[in-house]
């Protein structure tokens, strides 16, 4: 058993078998990161994976992977539409020298693979190194060097002023989900800025409630309570919660200095 969900384990076993057959000798291993690795996954979580390879997939292998990931989201059940991950060559995966290298990426619910740096972050490496779940292959810690906590802090310090601008490129702020996600994202950035580590969404919110100005506790409690509502596009933010979120964002960004 890899996870607490039998149907997800079945899907992961099938994915590993299919990918092994496609990649052949270039397959190194398969791993879980994200919420599952951090021990905080539930039915609202994505299943974040990394497939390690000796070289980036290309040619026939890339074409076959594209067909596989085009088909997976069409399967019945919950998890086929909640898979997200990348095919990372072990050279660029090893350490921060590989940042900026695009990996073949499957976005949440998408049927297309794209070359993207979405998973190629210090954040992903830290989770894999400390908490990654090995599905197949060698222990993931053997493939990734230790991540410098100061490098983690520096990356969050640089990211903090851009959080809201980044969200506005893809998220709708007339949705309750976006209000909750925004507060959570700032909490996760602040947690890493303070500790040099990564926390799950809920743990970051709890940490913020414990360590930030008590003025924000009602907002943080609302986000924790409402997370169970999930993605409902027609649901507007609670009255006043969006203004509170914008104020919290300004407060959080003041820590960038």
From TrEMBL:
<dbReference type="InterPro" id="IPR025184">
    <property type="entry name" value="AadA_C"/>
</dbReference>
<dbReference type="Pfam" id="PF13427">
    <property type="entry name" value="AadA_C"/>
</dbReference>
<feature type="domain" description="Adenylyltransferase AadA C-terminal">
    <location>
        <begin position="143"/>
        <end position="222"/>
    </location>
</feature>
<dbReference type="GO" id="GO:0016740">
    <property type="term" value="F:transferase activity"/>
</dbReference>
<protein>
    <submittedName>
        <fullName>DUF4111 domain-containing protein</fullName>
    </submittedName>
</protein>
<keyword id="KW-0808">Transferase</keyword>
